[in-house]
Amino acid sequence: MVSAVTTSTIVSFAGGDVTGSSTVSRVESTPIGAVVVVESTPFHPVDHTWPDQPGDTGEIAYDDSAVRVSPAVMAAVSDEGAFAVGSDIPVKRGADGWTWLVGHPLEAEAPAWMVEGARVELSVDSSRRAGLSRGHTACHLASLALDLALADLWRKDPGVDALGTPNFEARANQSSRIHEDGAVDEYRLGKSLRKAGFDTEGLTATLADREAAINAQLTAWVASGAPSRVVPEGPTIVDRRSWSCELPQGTAEILCGGTHVASLSEFVSISVTLDLTDPQTLVMTTRAVPAS
Fold first, then answer.
1. Residue 66's beta-bridge partner residues?
2. How do residues 124-171 score in pLDDT, each as one tens digit?
3. 124, 143, 159 — which closes off a domain?
4. 162 and 248 together in one domain
5. What is the pTM of this model?
6. Residues 286 and 215 both lie in one domain
7. Cα separation of 187 and 198, whole Å?
8. What secondary structure, in 3-state letters, does 132-170 show?
9. 116 with 26: CB under 8 angstroms?
10. Average pLDDT, whole number, for the chain?
């Protein structure tokens, strides 16, 4: 079914919402099955250009019936009417000539009541969302602690991170995958990084000490119980959002489209392991233990 969509989806996940009511604006048949678009949603979608945090799962309900939602995805419709989902979107988020949407892929065929104009209830799997939020916050904290632990290995200025530290994360990160209560980040230690002034040999020789320094910093930050939040610049999925955390060293603010905890008191601990089995790739595995 095709409907004229003229405004981007309004999202409420930045404030921590996991439920909401909305009106169906579009139901599309796609290669991944039926995809539903609503006017507003609490579902966080995976980003098609930097898919670090998985999309939310949950349900869409109408009266006494409900249908399961697979991980939510980005969707977009061009000014000419072309509808695209996820990796099939041919442009980056926010590109002109496209309206940006949250797609809710259904695990089954669209029920008869899933039609344009239907008023539906949306609910996100809250336990999974909480785990992903902890994983995402832990990932950012680990990257800031990594930058601090490697700061002395720079011979040139690479630019600074949210705490004013030489920004290894921005220079070297080639992939980030967030999961419930953790993340895995890969950093490329190639020729270009050495030319930028980073001492890769020094990192290799002191890897255990660097890991210990990161974990000590993470322990201190968790103990601070610092407030953490998502700061949106607007209400729609295409508006920029940032993660902000009031750490003892100062408030860190990082552009981020994901979800996060409200306070570092939601953790018992955050820790990392560093692996250089491949001398060209540093792998940082982050693990979070949630507070009960």
1. 61
2. 999 999 999 999 999 999 999 999 999 999 999 999 999 999 999 999
3. 124
4. yes
5. 0.96
6. yes
7. 13
8. HHHHHHHHHHHHHHHHHHHHHHECCCCCECCCCCECHHH
9. yes
10. 96
